[in-house]
Write a structure and sequence with these properties.
The complex is a heterodimer of chains A (266) and B (258). By secondary structure, chain A is mainly alpha-helical. Chain A folds into two domains: 47 residues; 205 residues, Orthogonal Bundle (MetI-like fold). Chain B has a domain of 145 residues: Rossmann fold (3-Layer(aba) Sandwich). In chain B, helix 7 crosses helix 10. Chain B is globular. The chains are: A mainly alpha (266), B alpha/beta (258). Chains A and B meet through helix 8 and helix 9 of A and strand 6 and helix 3 of B. Chain B: Keywords: ATP-binding, Nucleotide-binding, Transport. Chain B: It comes from Guptibacillus hwajinpoensis. Chain B: This is ABC transporter ATP-binding protein.
């Protein structure tokens, strides 16, 4: 009897949770549909200038055209590869720099003012120099994608390394562990949560670097599509590029969340 | 020849504002299988002394000699147990216990088996694949004890290991640590501010005076109390007598303006 009541309460609770989830998903879909409908209507009835703001069905038909002539897949693929490469490069190099600074207290003290300056400088301003130095191609764009995240990654992860509970280090040292063991067994795993959260920030930053790089190089990619659409006053093309960016940057973000679940078991 | 000899240790802490002497010319020794407690008011350098003995800290002056050899770096002969368990939350209980063996390159089938047996003795075998945050405070501190014992140290340095636990768990763990150490004939140095704990567990209690830390008095616990389990010792009629004596000494140290 008593048991039965508990089970009843539990199933009612689960039902309540499911209903809540259903309700939230419902609202999310409703907002999306309402937005698209409103946009479509406003565009077709010229409440807003369709030349400038376009509308969803126009973007969708352009999508079909660009897919069938293969150019969208090419531009998206190029940008995606550049972004992923820049993202990985920025994060890995940033983490390595942070490890080097952790290793040598003196090096970290010496480099401190330079890091502050580099961090506050807008990295995209280096774009023209990078492009001339490395040539107008993938290399320059990937470098821009990486350069925008590398310094902030270094600073954030170095800070995380330094705020690791000192008693974890004490445990390792009490067993006679050396500096490398302290880093690999305590400092690095204890900093995984911080590293993951910088990954999430870096997803957004690498997209900024790569898109600006493509603006400047103007050869291929979604950034090129945006600049081209702007120059020929085809804002449907610009908006199509934005939609592609939104979709793929969200997918990348979800990828990082997947890595997070794999890496942090607790 | 004593098992551990602390020879005229002095230690000075340097900060921007001052040079402060934490320990001044302190000497004592521990025999094999002996359990010694250090008590004293705050600022008497108890924890500093433990860090020096363990080799984590190099003293400004003096020497620590273990089994006739100079000890200047954390080694295999000593195990250090901290105030809290500090188990690594990203490692399972088993991995946490094997940490010391892994760090000293001594992971073999034999040592792993011995560690698992130790876990079993502490009633932790069933949770070996769990993560620390799934365990209670008492269980976690037991895991920390296994982690410390797994490398087979001859001397255990216990830095207030029971102070973060609730009273009941603390009494049980005192008994467990006491009997485990006696069973394996290990020496131990316990830092505590609990007079009762010091009397119940030790063969000898060393009272330190503060600023800078030096030995104020040494109390020998009679054989009769030494042999009892800590829980039983606390209930012995002689216990209260010793408690009073040490309490008065400690109290006078805390009140004197030195």
């Amino acid at each position: 009897m008593n048991n039965l009541q508990l089970e009843k309460q539990h199933s009612a609770y689960l039902k309540m949770l499911r209903r809540e989830k259903f309700e939230i998903t419902g609202w999310q879909l409703f907002i999306l549909l309402a937005f698209l409908t409103l946009w479509e209507t406003a565009g077709r009835l010229t409440w807003i200038d369709p030349l400038l703001f376009s509308y969803p069905s126009k973007i969708a038909s352009l999508f079909v055209v660009k897919i069938s002539d293969g150019s969208l897949a090419l531009h998206t693929g190029v940008t995606l590869l550049e972004t992923i490469a820049g993202f990985i490069l920025g994060t890995v190099l940033g983490t390595l720099f942070a490890a080097a600074l952790w290793w040598s207290r003196k090096a970290s003290k010496i480099s401190d003012p330079y890091l502050v300056v580099l961090n506050s400088m807008p990295k995209v301003a280096l774009g023209p120099i990078i492009i001339v130095a490395l040539g107008p191609g993938y290399l320059a764009i990937i470098t821009m994608g990486a350069s925008i995240s590398i310094i902030i990654t270094t600073l954030v992860i170095y800070h995380a390394f330094h705020t690791v509970e000192p008693n974890y280090v004490k445990v390792i040292r009490s067993f006679g562990g050396n500096k490398k063991q302290i880093f690999l067994e305590a400092i690095l795993p204890a900093s995984f949560p911080a590293i993951i959260s910088t990954l999430k920030v870096n997803v957004g930053l690498s997209w900024v670097g790569v898109i600006v790089g493509e603006f400047l190089v103007s050869k291929q990619g979604l950034g090129y599509m945006i600049i081209y659409g702007f120059q020929v006053f085809n804002f449907t093309l610009v908006l199509l590029s934005l939609v592609m960016i939104a979709v793929f940057s969200s997918l990348m973000y979800m990828g990082v969340e997947w890595i997070e679940r794999k890496l942090i078991k607790n | 020849m004593s098992f551990l000899q602390v020879n005229a240790i002095s230690h000075v802490y340097l900060t921007k504002t001052e040079a402060k002497e934490a320990i001044s010319n302190l000497s004592f020794s521990i025999e094999e299988g002996e359990f010694v407690s250090l008590i004293g008011p705050s600022g008497c350098g108890k924890s500093t002394l433990l860090s020096i003995i363990s080799g984590l800290l190099t003293p400004t002056e003096g020497k620590v000699i273990v089994e006739g050899k100079n000890s200047n770096q954390p080694g295999k002969s000593m195990g250090y147990m901290l105030q809290q368990d500090y188990l690594f939350p990203w490692k399972t209980i088993k991995e946490n216990c094997l940490l010391g063996l892994k760090l000293t390159n001594r992971l073999t089938k034999d040592t792993i088996e011995r560690t698992l047996k130790l876990l079993d003795q502490m009633g932790l075998y069933d949770v070996r694949h769990a993560y620390p945050d799934q365990l209670s405070g008492g269980m976690r501190q037991r895991v920390a004890l296994v982690r410390t014992l797994a490398t087979g140290p001859d001397l255990l340095l216990l830095d207030e290991p029971f102070s973060a636990l609730d009273y009941q768990t603390k009494l049980k763990l005192e008994d467990l640590v006491f009997s485990t150490l006696k069973e394996h004939n290990k020496s131990a140095l316990l830092v505590t501010h609990d007079i009762g704990e010091a009397i119940a567990m030790s063969d000898r209690v060393i009272l330190l005076s503060p600023r800078p830390g030096k030995i104020a008095r040494t109390f020998h616990i009679p054989a009769h109390l030494r042999e009892l389990l800590p829980f039983d010792a606390r209930n012995d009629p002689k216990f209260a007598e010793h408690f009073q004596v040490i309490w008065k000494e400690l109290d006078s140290l805390e009140q004197s303006p030195t």
